[in-house]
Amino acid sequence: MRQLFSFIFPDQASNLAPSVDAIFFALVVLCSVITLLVFVVALFFCVRFRRGSKVDRTPPKGGTLRFEIAWTLIPFFVFCGLFFWAADVYFAMSRPPGGATEIHVVGKQWMWKIQHPDGRREINELHVPVGRPVQLIMTSEDVIHDFFVPAFRAKQDVVPGRYTTEWFTPTKPGRYHLFCSQYCGTNHSTMVGWVYVMEPAEHARWLNQVAVSESLVAEGERHFHSRGCSGCHAPNSQIHAPLLEGIYGKPVPLSDGTIVIADEQYLRDSILLPNKQVAAGYEPIMPTFQGRISEEEVNAIVAYLKHLTDSERSQQ
Amino acid sequence: MSAVPMQAAPQYAPALQPTYLNVQRTIRSWLLTTDHKRIALLYMVSITFFFFVGGVAATLMRLELLTPRAELVTSETYNKLFTIHGVVMLWFFLIPSIPTVLGNFLVPLMIGARDVAFPRLNLASWYLFMVGGAFTLFSIITGGVDTGWTFYTPYSSTYSNGHVVAMAAGIFIAGFGSIATGLNFIVTVHTMRAPGLTWWRLPIFIWSLYTTSIILVLATPVLAITLALMALERIFGVGFFNPAIGGDPLLFQHLFWFYSHPAVYIMILPGMGVVSELIPCFSRRPLFGYKFVAVASVAIGVLGFLVWGHHMFVSSQSIYAGMIFSILSFMVSIPSAIKVFNWTATLYKGSIRFQTPMLYALFFIGLFTIGGLTGLFLACLAIDVHVHDTYFVIAHFHYIMVGGMVMAYLGGIHFWWPKITGRMYPELPAKLAALTVFLGFNLTFFPQFILGYLGMPRRYPVYAPEFQVLNVLSTAGASILAVGYLLPLTYLLWSLRYGRIATPNPWEATGLEWTTHSPPPKDNFETTPLVTAGAYKYDSQAAEAQREVAHV
Fold first, then answer.
1. ipTM for the complex?
2. How many domains does chain B fold into?
3. B455: which chain A residues are within 8 Å (Cβ-Cβ)?
């Protein structure tokens, strides 16, 4: 019985899975009842009122209005209930909790490149500890991909030119499928991999297996200097450029009068498309790094800039 | 709706009365015809051809999916096969199917007119359709396209090789045929109804096609614009959608689904229209809740324009937009539910016969109910995240499109076959074929719901080995389905020569099309009909009484 169940139903391996499955089962029950009702009633009518059967065929008295009202309003209220339930779960799925481990994912035809905060890289594999929320910060180097882990009930398109996020807390150790589920070209169906959910101790051992030369933040700091960012974005620079210490998460007034929050997307765009949102009081003189810098380098620099804010906060 | 005085009812005299089929016999008279009935037949032959093109692609895909590795064809070929299947089945079979074949044939007949409002435009529609089809076939024969029927950017505009522009041009041109057909039906229904045929007396088939036509006219131009922008980006590098040159990839999806979601209703509404004709006729009861069914069609057409974002719940559109699209998607399912309940209630107190068209209509109700209810899963935001782009979605829309629309199309073809050809189809093989299609269909697509929730993504020629058993079941079903589709092709062709000669009204149906000859003369009616009552004046008690008299 259990084997048959696992044959037709996926593993539940994240905090999201039980809440999604609860709605799924409720819908399966509701829809089965409606389907059976329609089938049984239709079959009954077909048999009872077949041509030649001796039954009373006097047309029913009274209009159809009360029926129409009933089968318009009942679905309406049921559907509203379903909507709120599913929207509530979806809202939770879309909002990562604070303190989640941030892991960077870059999709490209046809592989997944993954980088942990400590700088460790993986390809087509993701190792995460059980019980700790993980937030993936994802982008694509070419076309749209999609990071889909069925056992987690988690899925999100990975779109070039922007960051998308997806989060989950793994709840069950094991090895789970990772699929690209947005069609991305010839080898779309082999852009797959595995997610390994490990006990925390085991995960720590795994992290220490290979000595990593530098963390993601350290790598970002290195690029920040080698790419020349620090030449202008520094207190003693002769070029008038905004200081970036503590900028992450703060409102930035723009030259067109609007104000944006300096999130990952803003930092990324400022590196690749510097003329898109120019900070108020500064000339649009920054050169674009589009095509000159890899997605991984951008990720590392963004991580470094976020770290500057964190360290500033901790100093306060 | 039997409004023609009894003495005007045609005496059957096939040899004396030239029909639209034999009034002229040259090939030229067919290719340059402006007769809506002949144009319907031109479309019927064309879309049958395209149906089998798309069907061959589907067969090869299902064979490839027998094993979890790409063994029969390479991944590259598989990607081209599902693109061919999608493009051909959608734009060259499903969208034109009922509107251009049954619609062209029946709209003037059902409203008591001699032709559509613009007969020459009607012929031009068919030529546009064929030119579009030629472009699509050209792109298939010269190497194919691997973008999928959705043409998502930046893959289609920048990365894909192959004749993307030629295929898009084919759809673009065929789209103008759709717009012209829609315009023709709108004007025809508004201006050419027979005296006395008010809106509330129109058959539901006309209501459905009227709504479909409005969607065709409003939505198809957006598709044309979208494909043109994609082609401009591909040929000239104008940055609309590719972020590397300043575009927005989500803009494409918004534009594409703004057409393609209403297009789903272009595909299903005419099927609902057909079923609304079949159920009352074969149960000898007036359609339950006529006005509600009519208004539900229009409501589906309107709401259908407001739900495109439910294809984009995981695309990174705003979560609040997702919520709006979710609740609206629930709302659009209400009119569909109303229709199912009304069809079922029509059976009550009926005198039901189970000829082939009725079998198809009953199968339609069953499969459409399952297809519609599984749509609720997709409207539920949290569940859609999991099943989006998996086989669950594939199963869902095949239940609507194949289980719904193709069943209705076949039901309609059988129902009006005597009117169209003047011959009866053979009943026993037809019933067997209907049953084969029904069984094969369920075996093909039901396992895909399970595959989808397990997480098998669509467009995967190479898949995880644990999905194999369900895929083998699905392929087995597809082979039964293929037999089910070849059977009607065979016996319907057979019946053209050997079928029993049809009387003007073999089903004793109401509706103006049954008051003229089978097949009708070139100008449809000898005298313009006068309508004095609403549609579906059926009486199950009278039918029973008549049966008893016949048996005494």
1. 0.90
2. 1
3. 10, 148, 150-151, 177, 179
